[in-house]
Amino acid sequence: MADYEQEQDMEVEALQAILMDDIKEIDPSESGIATTARCFQILLSPQDDDFDESAYVPVQLALIFAHTEKYPDEPPLLNVKSVRGIKPHDLASLKEKLEQEAKENLGMAMVYTLVSSAKEWLSEIYGQNGGDEEPEETEAELALQRAKLMPDSALTSSKEKKLTGRQYFESGRHAVKGASTVADEDEEEEEDIEFDDDFEDDEEDMLEHYLAQQSENSAA
Prior knowledge:
Elements: H1 2-19, E1 23-26, H2 28-31, E2 39-44, E3 60-66, E4 77-84, H3 88-104, H4 111-125, H5 139-161, H6 165-183, H7 188-219
Antiparallel strand pairs: 1-2, 2-3, 3-4
Helix pairs in contact: 3-4
Region (Disordered): 174-220
Pfam families: RWD
Protein name: Ubiquitin-conjugating enzyme family protein
């Protein structure tokens, strides 16, 4: 019993030396944990350690823990609260994650390990711009979107470069129409109509000529 208490006290002292103002002892009634043991609250944010402390932090998390009688051979009692900007379903996911990790680290002082894990989770989920109404998409999501868009872009580019003969010819017709319009805007509609009629006549003449040649070749 005495060994457990000593180990727990040493862990608290180490955490206070490392976390400084970010850790404080709170009343058990404020912890959200059903215990009368000493409770501690650690404030976490997604910023790096060298982040300007005077700057406003839009997202902040409180990790609360209490040692059980046989900790670290038993997992600590844990709770997580949103100080600012953390969604309830995210808190539930984080608590479940930390409780699982606590079970995997039995037999050793683990609170700082859980703190590091919680901070990493906070950075991944919310990042520097956490707390926005619409959180930024992750790098993986952006990369996936780019991958989906690239084939369409490439296909569009390919189609633009490889025009059929008729498309190429018709693009020439539009160019001729454009030049005619610039030369004489007053006669635009009339010239376009006449051009289209002439073109259709030319197509018919060419077709008739081709069929006639084919007929002669067959007869020969």
